[in-house]
Design a protein that fits this description.
Elements lengths: L1 H25 L4 H18 L10 H21 L15 H46 L2 E4 L1 E3 L4 E2 L6 E5 L8 E10 L12 E6 L8 E6 L1 E7 L7 E8 L5 E12 L1
Antiparallel strand pairs: 1-10, 2-4, 3-10, 4-9, 5-8, 5-10, 6-7, 6-9
Helix pairs in contact: 2-3, 2-4, 3-4
């Protein structure tokens, strides 16, 4: 009876041990798996706090993230246990062939150990570089900003009252403002005055340089140094055209940059 109980206890202990081994293999305990999970979480956070701006400034960030994910995936693959080999078969080869086979197995194991260290290290380095690239874009990258146009339109002739362009306080201040303006004919069917039209864009907010632009064409882009201003910005837009021309400032867009 005692022998049967002892044998049963040994069998149960063996079963529990096998179950624990299987669970430990199933759990994401490999460095590559944890890296992959952390990198996916990092990408989700980057998407939530995306600073905006043109996609071209995120090319380096995208390449580094892709490299980090690929190397983390390679780390997961190299960390998987060998499967399907089964029990070792009796070898009937010559001693020399057996020695060559053993040497080949040692080289293969050495390469696997190197890969299991190299891929996680590369993945971490790519992740850190990607984080720095994202932070650089968030701190210094281009940020589009809305421009509010106030004043009476259309602008008829050279004595039209100036318009006021207001840039709201930006959430992410920058050192410069690129202002793009598009002036069009109010009545295109009566003929065009676009080629006869210029404008003066004058900074009302103190400290902005240059203070005024006087040869702005009907569709043009001007760049201002904000002089450290981080609050609301104001400009005036004064049209210069012929007396019989009726124009409209159709669009004003801004881009903050460093």
């Amino acid at each position: 009876m005692s022998g049967g109980q002892q044998q049963g206890g040994v069998t149960q202990a063996h079963t529990v041990n096998n179950l624990w081994v299987d669970l430990s293999k199933a759990a994401p305990s490999k460095p590559g798996t944890w890296l992959l999970i952390l990198e996916v979480v990092g990408l989700v956070l980057a998407a939530l706090y995306w600073p905006g701006g043109p996609l071209r400034q995120y090319v380096v960030f995208g390449l580094l993230c892709t490299s980090a994910l690929v190397t983390a995936g390679c780390s997961v693959v190299t960390g998987l246990p060998d499967r399907g080999r089964g029990a070792p078969r009796p070898q009937q080869a010559e001693p020399r062939d057996a020695a060559q086979q053993q040497c080949g197995e040692k080289k293969g194991n050495r390469r696997k150990r190197v890969a299991r260290v190299t891929f996680p290290v590369l993945s971490v380095l790519f992740s850190i570089a990607g984080l720095l690239a994202f932070q650089n874009v968030a701190d210094t990258g281009e940020v589009p900003i809305e421009i509010r146009i106030d004043g009476a339109q259309p602008l008829n002739g050279p004595r039209s009252a100036p318009l006021t362009l207001t840039v709201p306080t930006p959430e992410e201040p920058r050192e410069k403002l690129r202002l793009s303006l598009t002036t069009v004919d109010n009545e295109p069917s009566t003929g065009t005055c676009v080629h006869k039209t210029t404008a003066a864009v004058t900074a009302v907010t103190a400290g902005i340089t240059p203070h005024a632009y006087y040869e702005v064409t009907a569709e043009d882009t001007v760049d201002f140094d904000l002089g450290g201003n981080k609050g609301e910005l104001r400009f005036t837009f004064t049209l210069q055209t012929e007396a019989n021309c009726s124009m409209r400032l159709a669009k004003a867009t801004g881009t903050l940059h460093n």
